[in-house]
Amino acid sequence: PISAKTHDNPDIYPAVLLAITTGMRKGEILSLRWPQIDLKRSLVQLVDTKNGEARTVPVPKIAADLLTERGKVRSLTDDRLFTDPRDFDRCWRETLAAAEIADFRFHDLRHTAASYLAMHGATLAELAEVLGHKTLQMVKRYSHLTEQHKRSLVDRMAAGVFGDE
Asked: Which of 20, 142, 143, 155 is at 20 to 30 A from 126, Cα to Cα?
């Protein structure tokens, strides 16, 4: 995200941060409008999603703080959070080039978010809920990341029940 932070386009960093911290899709992020954002509760209400079902997405403090700051200087005549999504793809490619990252799509940030959630103990059902997947089958691609979490869980249980035998 460092090269995203320093890009001339002020939309790049907030979009990247939202993708990594929430797992939202690029289209969901770029189509956000201020009425969908509840800064008091740090939530985003997505209405138009890929699977056709609305969902509420919690926004962690780091992203909520950025949205709060961005909201202080927003247009009063345009309720879009990202006012020039047409230029976004070019700026995204420039950001990747500046970071010397190859073969990476914006959608990969959604996978990154899912991986981070799994590595921090999210269950498959929780991943499906956060990402807006209708079935657990869609989220199973992240199951290998929860193996270490499951190992830690059973080790803690065994230590609690049987001690350090």
From this structure: 155
